[in-house]
Amino acid sequence: MRLHTGFKLASTIAVTALLATACSGGEASTTGEDDQSAAGPVDLTFWTWAPNMENVVEIWNDENPDIQVTVNKQDGGDPAVTKLLTAIQAGSGAPDIMQAEYQKIPTLVSSDALADIADDVDDVDPSIAEGFPEGVWNAVTLGSDAVYAVPQDSGPMEFYYRADVFEELGLDVPTTWDEYADVARAVQEADPEKYLGTFSATDAGWFTGLAQQAGASWWGIDGDAWSVSIDSEPTRRVAEYWGGLVEEGVIDNKPMYTPEWNAALNDGSQIGWLSAVWAPGVLQGNAPDTAGLWEMAPMPQWDSAAPATGNWGGSAVAVTTQSEHPAQAAEFISWLNTSQEAVDALVSEAGIYPAYTPAQAGALSAPPEFFSNQPDFYELAGEIAQTAGSFTYGPNVNVAYSAYNDEFGRAAEARSQSEFLQAVESMQSVTFDDLESSGFNVTE
Amino acid sequence: MSILAPAPPSAATASAPRTLPRRRGGEPASVLATLVLLLGAAYCLLPVLWVVVASTKSGGELFSTFTFAPSTHLLENVSDLNAYRDGLFWRWMANTALYAGVGALLSTVVSAMAGFGLAKYRFGGKKAIFNMLLAGVLVPGVVLAIPQYLLLAQIGMTNTYWAVLLPQIISPYGIYLARIYAAASVPDEIVEAGRTDGAGEGRIFRTLALPMMLPGLVTVFLFQFVAIWNNFMLPYIMLGDDKLYPLTVGLSGLLNQGASQPALYTLVITGALLSIIPLIALFLTLQRYWQVDLAAGAVKA
Amino acid sequence: MTATQDAPTTTATSRRTTAGRDGRRTAPYFFLAPAIVLFVVFLALPIAYAVYLSFRTEQVSGLGLGSGARTQVWTGFTNYAQALTDPEFLASVGRVALYGVIVVPTMLGLALIFALMLDSRRSRARGFSRISIFLPYAVPAVISSLLWGFLYLPDVSPFYYVFDRLGWDVPSLFSSNLVIFAVANIAVWGGVGFNMVVIYTSLKAIPTELYEAARLDGCSETRIAWRIKIPIVTPSIIMTFVFSMIATLQVFAEPTTLKPLSNTISSTWTPLMKVYRDAFIRGDLYSAAATSVIIAVATFALSFGFLHLVQSRAFGQEK
């Protein structure tokens, strides 16, 4: 199969794949249309959890009576993958089209859940890959010739803060992590009820983004073997830093996304949030009364000379191996994620930050409503997005993330810096052992 | 027998007067006993009261005003919920009623037949069959859900109404109760008399035993109804299409999505309130059937 | 049952008698057929399948990408050995044991007290209390855990609001020492009403004559409760004990719903949560199946003694 041969060639350069060649198979572009006319009206099901996705799909359905897409709303990224994998195992019950977070793609490919749609996508738009940032495209090809999904949105991380409270307390926006720590101390000193932020042991994706910013890439492909490098210098540095702040008590240790955290955002006891570009939507839903009080800035840096950020969240849309109409499904997902019309609708309906660069300018002309006080919001976001480092996900991200929850939950509860470092070691060994015992080729 | 037979869950028991007439206020009220009951009631009502109050709040107020301070947004919340994806919530409500209503009805019929068979006949393998059926109580639903899914997928029945309906018809608990009711409320003499009149066994069951067991079977129905109404794991695994979801799965989905869209919290809370109203109504109207005798035979002994 | 051997009554024709006897012989199987068929299809087969899976495992080859990279193989008792030596699993078993020690006596004790008070002629507000205490039974565990979660979190909880005003420094219920009580409370809240109804039902079945005499002799209500009522409802209490114990071993929904609210509930906090994590988060159905089998066998072993005892009592009288 082209996957295997292609994969071995590409794997050595997995992180910096040569994107242009990945999609250069020049086949006749008529096959897709032939399939469509021969098959007549086609019904496709689409599992997604993006808010209001059904309204975007509506546009497609109106324009394409021959390819009708039905949205099945899912609980979220994890439950949807769980159900998809169960359906794959059972041999039936999977949808045609599936939204999947980037970190889930290796797992899904490894379970043979995602179809390789390289040829179908190529038929629609041979230069589609060029429209995506390198790291993002790499996440859907896994560095091979195959294309397992079309990227939808990305989540470059940024620093959100209550500009009014900062002013009141006479604080400067931190640009380095050292400054961030100083500001955290100043905030606590000024008002012990207030925190600059919290270390959330329930959001593995958040910590992954922080590690990515520091230069970590937790998995890698080394020849025909996986490598796991969670317990590496960048991750240890991040864990040590946060463990120190939590132990000192200047940063909260409660999880994000709880009613309590929501209340803290509302009443101004959490005055900062290291989040991603989609944060305005969350803040708006959570603390509508604080509109106009927040501002966004680049992440604090480890090295001001080489600004970097990580990604938190972001997903792609894939065609499953159980779909009987992969060509039509691929046509739909290409439209959904790269046409100006659909991207505009995704931005306005679902509030996403589109991954497809050519459509960004048109869709993101105005700042989010909640940040109308920061007119250059998306310009700044676009600059920040350029600084995202690359990060390779492995086939057992789920195991690593669940280990993160357990190990860092314990460490955060104990408020102990040494336990934060211990947690990194445990994540490494749990993740490595799982790969090894499943039979993957794996090197230390 | 007639004196001691408890006729477990029947209306007769509920309304059976104690032999001494009870005069209202005849006994001095015990402050302690009343206080204990009221404390228990307060403990049980507190979270329910919270839902009622919370469902009157807007999304922002939910996290910013005092927990038990009511607001005025109830109607807004209900209409938001009503508008959510073209009234999907009501579809979930209807689905739940279907799963619980039809499922509990079929379950009661199956349990009644099995309970009658076990209580009124002697036959080879009776003890083994009963023990086997009862052992079903021991297997957690979480454990069964995946194999059930994989097996139903073989015949292409996942993601259909059947996938949720069929597995919940068998209720070891219902069979256990039905056996107790049949043993306690259907006298052998009546069964014998039916046979003497030449009625077949099926006819005896339908026309003689069933009416006698009926009050008890209402209880079996109600318990199975609540069990299906509250079940989460099975529909969660079986269904991919949110138009087939029952309330539990639908609301928990909203809750999970609420993590990134907190506005959905108010929908979940309003939905939770609306979803327990039908059960409260059921409790109040059928109050006298809410009686379970897990060990009727023992009382007789 | 002696009736089956009785000679036919004189009015019956011999033909009808034979038919009746045949009918009587096949009838129980007919009555049980639907239950047995459903049991086999939806319980026995899935259980057998789970047992089968528990002896299997999946081997991945190479990078494990693409179709055909995974194959299912026999693995003997490896999954069982792994589960039984997994410190996380053993910790979760210990936790559930402690949880059971907290929940079952508290819940049944409260249920018994409430049932006795409901049965007492001297208490007031009985109807209101009965329906109120039973009400939580109507609330699905997923929802009730959400409600209590809101009431537990110090920054949104009305209790902590009051504690704060009083100047008390009450530790968070989600701290590692207290979280088990937080979960137990939800279970007690949800279960006390059901058990109260069970016990109350058997209290009502007691013929009043039994204690009218005692009452005339001047026995206090408390004495009547201890000497007459409680001994008579003991079988019901044993049954509620068994069912509560089974439910305790299967605790899952409450801690799972509370988990994202705190740092202290791990993904293997209870044995069933470990099953869930293995099956759904790690995609390892095989370990999950082995752990499930262990849980089911343990539940069976624990409850068999009680069930056996009660069953022989409950159905001892039946012919």
From TrEMBL, chain B:
Predominant place of localization: membrane
Positions of transmembrane segments: 31-53, 97-116, 128-150, 162-184, 204-229, 263-284
Domain of life where this protein originates: Bacteria
Topological relation to the membrane, as annotated: Multi-pass membrane protein
Keyword Membrane attached: yes
Residue ranges occupied by any ABC transmembrane type-1 domain in the UniProt entry: 93-286
Keywords: Cell membrane, Membrane, Transmembrane, Transmembrane helix, Transport
Region (Disordered): 1-25
GO term, biological process aspect, one: transmembrane transport
Family matches, as InterPro entries: MetI-like (IPR000515), MetI-like_sf (IPR035906)
Biased composition (Low complexity): 10-19
Cell compartments where the protein resides: Cell membrane
GO CC aspect terms: plasma membrane
One Pfam family from the record: BPD_transp_1
Family named by the database record: Belongs to the binding-protein-dependent transport system permease family.
Name assigned to this protein: Carbohydrate ABC transporter membrane protein 2, CUT1 family
Biological source species: Paraoerskovia marina
